[in-house]
Amino acid sequence: MSDDDVKDAKDPKKAKANAKKKKRDDEEPAWDRAKANVRTIGGAVLLAVFIRIVLFEAFEIDGPSMEPTLLNGDRVVVAKMLYGLFLPKTHEAVLTWGEPELGDVVIVHSPYDDVDIVKRVMGVPGDTVQQREDGFYRNGELVPRREVGPCKEEEQLEDPYSDMDECTVYEETIAGRTFRISDSGHGERVGPPVTVPEGHIYVRGDHRDRSNDSTNPHIGAVPIERVKGRALFIYLSCEDEPGGVNFCDSARWHRFFAGVR
């Protein structure tokens, strides 16, 4: 027994005080650990919120309007930081600092039906664009395209409204960027030439027969403030069965992590 223990045994009050001090010393590390855990969890939550609001967001493709580039059931990662800052539950950027380029696949908020839609940029401020029966024109010139083959030979067979015997897949090239579109040549969206105003973009779906885009006069050219981001890559692709209850009824494994062209 040490001299201090002997002294404590002789002095009950001092022994009691020392016991309390020892208990506090034991409790302080536990409290410090708890505070550190709270700070770590709080930091992780704030980081997740920052990423969700400012940097990246997941978006699910619903419908055939971007076939064959994007299919119904594809999930894509969208870069939000490229064009502006959106606050939660808002559909117009509170601050903008960039503009999409020709050929970009972007998420925009439709001013007509109040939903987010995915489309391709086919016109930028100052361009005069027009959909004709033989293709899409920009500044008086037909956007170059090359026939690839019938749609029924492609993966995109999900649209019941397309006549697959007439639908054709083409490769189009705009501003040096090449991508695939599908078109039956029915010309439902043929219209007069339109000049894209400053601060706007003109968007089209890659499935030219079945796309609610800028050719719809109720949508028209879309303000930059409504461009929510650019699609980067597919992180998940599911061919869900009608009435399916599973998270992913049939995975398209070969599409996972494919870049969006």
Give an overview in words.
The protein has 261 residues and is α+β, with helices and mostly antiparallel strands. It folds into two domains: 3-52; 61-255, Ribbon (Umud Fragment, subunit A), CATH 2.10.109.10. Helix content is 20%, strand content 30%. It has two helices and 16 strands. It has helices at residues 3-10, 12-55, and strands spanning 56-60, 74-79, 84-85, 95-96, 105-109, 116-123, 128-132, 135-138, 141-142, 145-150, 168-174, 177-183, 194-195, 200-204, 222-223, 227-237. The strands form four sheets. It has a seven-stranded antiparallel sheet. A four-stranded antiparallel sheet has the order 9-8-7-13, with no helix packed on it. A three-stranded antiparallel sheet has the order 10-11-12, with no helix packed on it. β8 and β9 (141-142) form a beta hairpin. α1 crosses α2. The chain is elongated. The relative contact order is 0.17. The model has no long low-confidence stretch (mean pLDDT 82).
